[in-house]
């Protein structure tokens, strides 16, 4: 193998530097190549990096100017190692990079989600093996949109309500994973909601089954609302694994298009979400999935097998509910 290492400048308008003569062929373009030119499977880098530039621009000159500075250098230099695929071809594997770790940086948010997904893919089969008869529900809990300036308080109330719900006798799950998503309403409001994976005993589908209306009533009571909130409950088919829900559960806290469209909304979102935890686990799932509650230290290495699983799973457009 002639070439073992390549360093790419990931600021796409800047010149790419090659550390090995053997790579000159890659740089005979009129324009510096984007990462996806060289490694098509890394196309998402381009998209997230472009959105990071937009978010950094919004932060520039604001209370969060220092985030803007950090984001400018986020993942600017990526070190890749060449891994042989067969006798004639190689694939690029990220070996080192510097990430800014700003919470709302699209690149870091994406990498964090990949690491979380990889961890979940590794652990969920162990849980299924230990609890083979248990079933899985995917529940989305919402309430009416709030002002973006009231987001923090609203999420806190929702967290308290969720805690109350898990303590109710009627609450059927013995383990859960909950993630927070915030979307932007067209009128500039905020729509915080929870995506939850719940593990229930098989008896849930016998005498302990809760109808949709009963779930709504329970959530309404716990959240102390004077209206019926929108709530969605889906059961995963018997015998199907919960892994199919990972992409929906651990995707992102706020989608990139919502963060780039409105500067003032992003700045307030940043203030409101400061140090609020995005993922919580409980019950018997806590011991398996607790690591997902923390910011991953390593944003670079996603093990091969899990990464393949993520790639396959991201291609899926259908979830298999029964
Ligand atoms: Zn970053």
Description of the molecule:
The chain contains eleven helices and eight strands. With 322 residues, it is α+β, with helices and mostly antiparallel strands. It folds into two domains: 93 residues, no CATH class; 208 residues, no CATH class. The strands form two sheets. Strands 7-4-6-5-8 form a five-stranded antiparallel β-sheet. Helix 2 packs antiparallel against helix 3. The radius of gyration is 22 Å and the shape is flat. The N terminus and C terminus are likely disordered. The site of zinc ion (ZN) has 8 residues, from helix 4.
Percent helix range: 25-40%
Strand order of the largest sheet: 7-4-6-5-8
Largest sheet: 5 strands, antiparallel
User: Number of DSSP helices?
Assistant: 11
Name the hetero compounds present. Answer: zinc ion
User: Order of helices and strands, N to C?
Assistant: EHHHEEHEHEEHEHHHEHH
Gyration radius from CA atoms, angstroms? 22 Å
Estimate the global geometry from the Cα principal axes: flat
Q: How far do the termini sit from each other? A: 50 Å
Number of domain modules: 2
Oligomer: single chain
Low-confidence stretches: 1-5, 11-30, 308-322
The overall average pLDDT, rounded, is 81
Structure classification = alpha+beta
Give the DSSP E fraction (strand runs of 2 or more residues).
15-25%
Number of strands: 8
């Amino acid at each position: 193998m002639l070439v073992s290492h390549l360093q790419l400048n990931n600021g796409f308008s800047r010149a790419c530097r090659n550390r090995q003569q053997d790579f000159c062929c890659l740089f005979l373009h009129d324009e510096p190549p984007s990462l996806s030119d060289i490694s098509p499977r890394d196309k998402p880098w381009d998209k997230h990096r472009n959105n990071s530039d937009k978010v950094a621009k919004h932060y520039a000159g604001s209370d969060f100017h220092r985030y803007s500075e950090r984001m400018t250098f986020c993942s600017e230099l990526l070190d890749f190692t060449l891994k042989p695929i067969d006798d004639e071809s190689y694939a690029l594997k990220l070996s080192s990079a510097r990430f800014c770790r700003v919470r709302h940086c699209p690149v870091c948010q994406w990498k964090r989600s990949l690491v979380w997904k990889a961890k979940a893919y590794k652990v969920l089969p162990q849980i299924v093996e230990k609890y083979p008869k248990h079933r899985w529900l995917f529940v989305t809990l919402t309430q009416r949109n709030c002002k973006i300036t009231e987001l923090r308080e609203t999420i806190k109330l929702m967290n308290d309500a969720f805690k109350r719900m898990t303590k109710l006798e009627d609450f059927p799950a013995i383990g859960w994973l909950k993630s927070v998503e915030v979307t932007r309403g067209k009128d500039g409001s905020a729509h915080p909601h929870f995506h939850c994976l719940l593990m229930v005993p098989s008896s849930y589908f016998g005498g302990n089954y809760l109808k949709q209306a009963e779930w709504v009533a329970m959530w309404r009571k716990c959240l102390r609302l004077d209206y019926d909130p929108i709530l969605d409950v889906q059961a995963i088919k018997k015998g199907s694994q919960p892994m199919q829900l990972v992409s929906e559960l651990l995707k992102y806290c706020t989608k990139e298009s919502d963060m780039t469209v409105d500067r003032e909304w992003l700045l307030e979102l940043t203030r409101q979400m400061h140090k609020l935890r995005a993922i919580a686990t409980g019950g018997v799932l806590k011991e398996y999935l607790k690591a997902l509650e923390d910011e991953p230290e390593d944003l670079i290495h996603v093990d091969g097998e899990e990464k393949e699983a993520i790639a396959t799973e991201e291609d899926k457009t259908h979830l298999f509910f029964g």
